[in-house]
Fold this protein.
Amino acid sequence: MNWVYLSPHLDDAVLSCGGLIWEQSQAGHSVFVWTICAGDPPDTGISAFAESLHGRWETGSQASAIRRQEDIAACQLVGASYHHFSIPDCIYRTSPMSNTYLYSSEAAIFGPLHPDEWVLIKQISAEIKEHLPENPQLVCSYSYGGHVDHQLTRTAAEFLGIPIWYYPDYPYVAEHDLTPNTAHSNIEILQHPISDGGLQVWIEAVARYKSQISTFWPAENAMHTAITKYVRSVEGVHLIKLQDA
């Protein structure tokens, strides 16, 4: 099978499904991780909010380049091919109408998608369609947590009008207990157990995203503990398919 994971950022697919991706690659499937918001910031400068994140990540102005290298290392570890789209992260994007920053605060990046992004959504959807292999199993962020780039990715994927599996966005799904209600007749859950070997590779792959550890955990060992607890609590990784009503 051709499994194509759409990752909003340079870490989301591996954060959420690293063990499953490794298990699939070990089973002989072709697995791809396509990161949507992997492009460089504009040459015209970035907001004070983006500057503050660069400081926390300890990347300086090379944040995007460093994060792409982290993603390449993580994808290689889990056995996936990678593709980096040229769309900048939301913290860098400006309105094509007013040239103002669209998301310049923590509240903004977890708010609604800006109306000026609809042209971008269609552009992303067209690029996904252009690169899809034959008979793909497309797997997309469910958008738990509500980050605007996760919303952007899901909306662009759904614009294709093809069947999609959704992965619960970790760690947001664990932080907010957002496991879907399987009692609803229009939701199908595909449960994938993760072996001890798969869990270990998953943790090692997440550790490759050194710049992002501080976003979710106080230290790397806390990440090890959190992922292990999560995988054991949900008994692996589950993918979600929404059936037609």
